[in-house]
Amino acid sequence: MSVESVPATMHRVMGTADGVRVVEVPTPVPGPGEVLVRTAVAGICGSDTHALHGRHPFITLPYAPGHEVAGRVVAGDGRPAGQRVTVEPFLPCWDCKQCRAGRQNLCERLGFFGCAHDQGGMAEYFTVDARRLHVVPDELDWATAALIEPLATPVHAIRLAGGVRDRTVAILGAGTIGLLLLRVARAHGARRIVLTARSAANRDRALRFGADAAVDATAPDAIDRVRRALAEGTPSARGGASGESADVVFDCVAEQDTLLQAIGMADKGGTVVVVGVPPGDVSVPLPVVQDSQIRIQGSATYLPEDFADAIELLRAGTVTAAEFVTAVWPLAEAAGAFRDAAGGGQIKVLLAAEPGVAGSRPAA
Ligand SMILES: [Zn+2]
Ligand SMILES: [Zn+2]
């Protein structure tokens, strides 16, 4: 492959207090240990739309978004030019207690590419620490490659829950992460999976994507409905009027009302995994947590093994871009893409840095 010429300036998306802007900036130059990557696609995450509306606890405006990104290596640190890569976006210091213990996602001095960093993947080019790259297998097209990072989040959450094989699962929220969790939990052998969602459209979507039942999250008896739906179909359905508890509840919304529901569903002996980014503090019914021996587990991002598992799940077709990528916008129209993503009708919205790139695989 011939050496690619790199333009002196390029376009980068910025999330600002005045909305989404596309700015012209100098093309970054890789430093020692870094790689220059030419972006193919970058996904818009719920955390991006939250950040734009000032509802993300750890992202401050302005920032350079794009942590769900795939592209081609241009130059740097011994990687072959043209190699297809995705970024594992948190940027650990590699030196603190957590990093030395292999828990880089809990680094005491954690940076985050595309969130708390001077660069993100919503740009024509970016540079990043070569250690944060994963190779994208050739059989995954670019749109599928953009799902590796979002899929790694539920993979990690299920790992932290201790797995879901033969267990009953409730998932609160039928947005992108809820639907990805549903597919991963199914692939990992969950016995029964019930989702909750506030909108009828999202409940229908959850059923189409394979939930055993979908419950209206706004119903006053939502907890009992979920417990009854979990008890259905079990050989010894002794659940009674209030059904049976969920072994694992994944709270993908993480607000006061969903956390109370999650604890009610997990009662007794269950695990509540907080997967969504909470917009603020909530209160916890501690007597129930203690007396019913409920475990509350936070789940933050992922580790390299979760990326590897996500790639395998995409290879196996557990999750497909045809179902999950519902809109692709050109990078130059990022503002429109963010509005589309915040509108609630899409699952995953991608920005494509080149026309027609999203559905393409590498040219031979
Ligand atoms: Zn994300
Ligand atoms: Zn560290």
Biggest pleated-sheet summary:
7 strands, mixed
The CATH homologous superfamily name of the largest domain equals Medium-chain alcohol dehydrogenases, catalytic domain
| Helix content bin | 25-40%
Average pLDDT, to the nearest integer? Answer: 93
Tally of distinct domains: 2
CATH architecture of the largest domain: Alpha-Beta Complex
Radius of gyration: 21 Å
Structural class of the helix and strand makeup? alpha/beta
| Proportion of residues in extended strands | 15-25%
What's the number of extended β-strand segments? Answer: 17
- Small molecules in complex: zinc ion
Oligomeric state, counting identical vs distinct chains: single chain
Return residue spans where pLDDT drops below 50 for at least 5 consecutive residues: none
CATH fold description of the largest domain = Quinone Oxidoreductase, Chain A, domain 1
Distance between the termini: 11 Å
**Which descriptor suits the 3D outline?**
globular
Q: What is the chain-wise order of helices and strands?
A: EEEHEEEHEEEHHEHEHEHEHEHEHHEHE
| CATH class division of the largest domain | Alpha Beta
Count the DSSP helices.
12
